[in-house]
Amino acid sequence: MHNIKLTIAYDGSDFSGWQAQPGQPTIQGALSDVASNLTQENCQIYGAGRTDAGVHALGQAAHFRSQSALSAAEFMRAFNALLPPAIRVTSAEEVGPDFHARWSALAKTYQYRILRARVLPPFESRYVLHDPFPLDIAAMARAARLFEGSHDFSSFAASTGTEEGDRDRSPVREISCSRLFARKGNYFDGKGFLTSIESTSASLDETANSQAAESDELLYVVRGKSFLRYMVRKIVGTLLDVGRGKIGLEDIPQLLEARDRSRSGPTTPPQGLYLVSVEYADPWKL
User: Fold this and answer.
1) Domains parsed from the chain with CATH numbers
2) Pair type for strands 87-95 and 46-47
3) Entry pTM
4) Which residues are catalytic?
């Protein structure tokens, strides 16, 4: 039995999330269908995380087991020939039998994009949250740092959908990085995408410089072992409320202690969120 690890990028706009659902287009469902077709086996794809409807991925990780004689490279070529254009396998490798995309993961990194430009480019409408209104970016950057460390994130998570699920789920999560970055660029300069954005070299830790204050895009980056449902999107909504002056920096520790999701900021739309990468302890190669 071979264990094949995949790294996957996808545009989640037209999918009902990662997890397979009867009668709904999903990333897991599309991958499992192709794997079963290629191997003539009942293949199940296991992902590192369950992204929600409309959420994108640059480096989702997954694995499946098969007795097929196809090599990892052959699987990669075949997947990309049969999958819809919105899903691409960017790498494939055979790994050891103990590897599991979800349970072996050490950390995941997510990004959330907030476009600050006055006009929303049509090419970006499915990939960013558009918010051109005044924001205190320096306050947002300081607030972002307050989420680092081990906290009970009950105030920043949606229900699992059942009382039993909520009761059995631990709301404590360890966040190793929670930072806000500013990016500057002109989307309508006629030079195309290659020169459209330049990234600042450092996060906005304490003060927002003039470039950040006039930035075309804010990028929230968060890294942790695991996340609760809607957790990143509710943190971003809370940071935006900080930027609008609705929530103060002193309120963030109180929101964490309250364990009351009704008191945090709104859940931002899914299209700005990306699963960037999943980290593992070692290559897991044979």
Assistant:
1) 2-103 (3.30.70.580), 106-278 (3.30.70.660)
2) unpaired
3) 0.88
4) 52
